[in-house]
Write a structure and sequence with these properties.
Blueprint lengths: L2 H21 L23 E15 L5 E6 L6 E2 L4 E5 L2 H27 L1 H27 L12 H19 L10 H48 L4 H26 L2 E3 L4 E6 L6 E2 L6 E17 H4 L7 E6 L7 E8 L4 E3 L2 E10 L11 E6 L1
Antiparallel strand pairs: 1-8, 1-13, 2-4, 2-7, 3-6, 4-5, 6-8, 8-12, 9-10, 9-13, 10-12, 11-12
Length: 380
Amino acid sequence: MNTKLILSFVLLLAGGLLISACGGQATPAPAQGATTELPAVISSANIVVEGRVVPNESAELSFFTNGQVAEVLVEEGATVKKGDVLARLGNREEVEAAIANAEAELLAAQQALEELNSDVSVTRAEALRAVAAANKAVKDAQYQLDNFEVLGNQENMTAMQGVEVTKQALDQARDAFEPYKYRPSGDAMRKKLKETLDTAQSDYNSAIRRLEYETDLQEAEANLERAMKDYEDLKDGPDPDLVASAEARVAATEAALKSAQAALDKLELVATIDGTLVKQDLIVGQQVTAGQPVMQIADFSRMYVETDDLTEIEVVDVSVGQKVTVVPDALPDLEVTGNIESISSVFEEKRGDITYTARILLDEADPRLRWGMTVVVTLE
């Protein structure tokens, strides 16, 4: 029903009746000197449009992934809160296990990073003690080497050269003594060769000891150098490379946990607003497709009327806060008041007219009013 057409027809009919009445009877001329009274002009400034009852807010819900329905936790007509889980898809065990593993790994990674930072003072003290111990080892090795008496026949040789020369002399002495080793100990030749062999063995032992002292000193110096480097690395904090590695481990684990949690969230259908579940199409075992609407929630805490019937001629006389009267088509004896809450800035073109949408907040919502009912709106 087009209320605007009906209203125009009624006004036209009333105008015709008025003209007929005037034409059927002559109007008497006013008496001389009398004042002529002009008829009152009644202006109808009211704007009448059609609208539809809508809730404060509504939302269609759908899953973010394909799957089979494992649980339906609410029934149609239930009151729900934003964030409530309304239904779940199957195959949760694998995703939950991935979340548990990621949480455990994240805890270990965070602890490793914390320990790396908190233990730096202890590690620095240990490194300093290592420097002191290595320095003492260098001094001890140097002392042994400085107080070692080098044999005269090895004074102009390095320790390695001394070992090589004395080893050669020892081998020659052994070879020379070999033919005589079973002779009686009193044999003069055997006694002489044995003395030569003993001297060669002593010289060789001395050369080996000198080489060991030099090797000990070299090792102690190398250990001291490493200890000092370790201390320098720790002097200003933990090893940057270790910190970077620990932080990368934490970041990677956080990303894995976030991904696993997102996968679990996709298996749950969650209420996005507070309200009443007005539509519920799910059954356990049903196969659903991502993006397919399966539930709908409406917030009936406040009721509105929306009209997209305001023309460009009418909208200039309408403002936010303006009082209106609403009469439902299905309840002609019911009259509800309200206020214009918003007027759209974007136009639509309908049946050749430029129109705008207004949203009207009802002062009271009669329990008989239902979502979608058509109404006549009179803007005073």
